[in-house]
């Protein structure tokens, strides 16, 4: 076990080391604060050196950016509306296609009916001519 004198010497050395660490920390903080101050001065100097036209240009760019964001929102709204309208038109097109198909089928049936009617008409016309000829022949015989 260490004697009291040895413990005292060890404690004194520890205190001196701690004091040295504190001094180094303080010195580091002072250096950091000085560097921080230096950087702030450089930033301020650069800001002061900026041409007023550049500052105005920056403000104009920010204003234009806000304007473009507003236009973008309007375009997104219009896009949503147009998508809904395209969807509705697509549904309408499907209905129209279905109706067109049904009308084509009906036209095909009507054309078949027309052909049948034309044949029937031709047959009836031929019968009528033959009946007229027979009637004419009977009329000639009666005269």
Terminal Cα separation, in Å? 171 Å
Q: Return Rg in Å.
A: 53 Å
- Overall form: rod-shaped
Mean pLDDT: 87
**Helix and strand run:** HH
Give the low-pLDDT segments.
none
Measured by DSSP, the beta-strand proportion falls in under 5%
Largest sheet: none
Q: Main attributes?
A:
143 residues; mainly alpha; 2 helices; 0% strand; rod-shaped
What are the SSEs and their pairings?
Layout: H1 4-49, H2 52-142
Please characterize this protein's 3D structure.
This protein has helices at residues 4-49, 52-142. The protein has 143 residues and is mostly helical. 0% of the residues are buried.
What's the quick description here?
The protein has about 140 residues and is an all-alpha fold.
């Amino acid at each position: 076990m260490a004697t009291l004198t040895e413990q005292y010497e060890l404690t004194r050395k520890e205190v001196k080391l701690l004091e040295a660490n504190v001094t180094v920390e303080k010195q580091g903080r002072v250096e950091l604060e000085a560097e921080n101050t230096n950087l702030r001065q450089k930033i301020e100097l650069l800001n002061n050196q900026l041409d007023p036209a550049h500052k105005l240009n920056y403000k104009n760019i920010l204003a234009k950016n806000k304007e473009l964001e507003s236009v973008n929102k309007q375009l997104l709204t219009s896009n949503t509306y147009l998508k809904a309208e395209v969807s509705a038109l697509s549904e309408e097109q499907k209905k129209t296609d279905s109706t067109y198909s049904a009308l084509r089928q009906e036209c095909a049936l009507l054309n078949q009916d027309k052909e049948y009617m034309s044949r029937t008409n031709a047959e009836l016309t031929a019968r009528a001519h033959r009946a007229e000829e027979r009637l004419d022949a009977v009329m000639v015989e009666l005269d």
